[in-house]
Amino acid sequence: MSRLPINTVKTKFQTGDRPSQVDYEDLIDTLAAQSTDLGTAGNNENTVSDIQNATVIDNFDATTWRMVKYLISINKTSAGDNKFYATEMTILVDGTGVSVSEYGTIDNDGNIGTISVSRVADTVNITVTPVVGITPITVRFARIGLKA
Questions:
Q1: Mean pLDDT in the chain?
Q2: pTM given for the model
Q3: DSSP string spanning the chain?
Q4: Which residue has the higher pLDDT, 41 or 19?
Q5: Is the dihedral of CA 19, 25, 29, 31 positive or negative?
Q6: Does residue 142 have a pLDDT over 80?
Q7: Cβ neighbours of residue 50 under 8 Å, at least 6 residues apart?
Q8: Hey, what's the torsion of the CAs at 134, 136, 140, 146, to 10 degrees?
């Protein structure tokens, strides 16, 4: 499967030359892959493992995105632990800052980590910090966004 940036595929069909069989296959593969992607260039179901301390799990450009929604799951299943935490966050980006709404939070054994959102210049960072003594943790997330 050859997944290309959509602009690259578009250019192949705009040159005036007859597209090749490979061009059509690239187009089909790219569109098929994008059909399962969410908002921000396919960052769905990302995993960050073995988190021991505060870790930026994701970031995005504040000048490109107006709103980004995250589904985040934190778990610790090593050393006999069976701890799970899940939440949703909506981040609204304005001209200079960010507003965050966290909701839909559920866990099975207390808080195992905190999630914070910060903006540094034009970058919005999502940071996960494990609770002391509950490491390592694994974070999975999916995101969808609306452009500014």
A1: 85
A2: 0.72
A3: -----HHHHHHHHHSSSPPPHHHHHHHHHHHHHHTT--TTTT--SEEEEEE-S-EEEEEEETTTEEEEEEEEEEEE-STT--EEEEEEEEEEE-SS-EEEEEEEEEESSS--EEEEEEEETTEEEEEEEEPTT--SEEEEEEEEEEE-
A4: 19
A5: positive
A6: yes
A7: 136, 138
A8: 80
